[in-house]
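Below is how a single chain appears once it has passed through the pipeline. First comes the sequence as given, then the structure the pipeline wrote out for it. We keep one example in the README because the format questions we get most often are answered faster by looking than by reading.
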Amino acid sequence: MKRLMMFMLVLLLLMSGLALFPGGKVYACSCVESDAKERLKTFTTVFTGEVVKKGHAQQSKHDGLIREYTFDVDTAWKGINTKKIKILGSDGDSGSCGIQLEKNQSYLIFAYQHEGDQKLHTNLCSGNVAVEQAVDELKLLGTGKVVSKEDFGGTNGEGNGSIDLIVYGGVILIAGLAMVWMWRRRKRA
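Resulting structure:
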C-alpha cells in the first residue's frame, strides 16, 4: 500500500510538473520525395551556381529565419535572366527545413517564388545539392544553358560598363557646360 501511495504521489508530481511547464511548439521537417525532372517542372528557377555572398540570418514575417545568398550562375535550366541572382534560404537546421550553403561552393539550386514577398526562396525540401554530389540530378536535367555576362548585357547588381560610361560622361559634360556658363556670366558682370 505504501508503494502504491508513493507511486501515485510521484505520478501526481510528474503530471503537475508537465502542466506547469508545457513544452514549446515543435515542428519537424517532412519532405516529399521527387526527382530532378519533376522538380524542374514545379520550381520557378533551376540553376547551378557558386555562392559569392552569404548574408546574415534575418527574421521574416512569413518563414521564420531566412538568409540571403547571392549566386554567380553557371548553368540555367529555368527562370534565369541574369548572371547573378539572389535567393532567400530558410535558415536553421534540417529539423526546421533549413539549409546552410557555404560561400565559394557551387550548388544545384531549385527555387520557388514566394507569394508573400515575390522573391525567390529555397529550403531543405527543394532538393538543393552540392554540384559535386549532383551527378544523377544533372543527368536527369539534361543539358542546360551555360550562362555568361554577355548573355544578359551585364550582371544583376553590377553596372553595365557601356551604359555607365554614357551616364557618367553625360553628367561630366553637363557639369562642364554649367561651369563654362557660370564663368562667362561672371566675366560679363
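The first strand starts at residue 45 and ends at 54.

See the next section for the split statistics.
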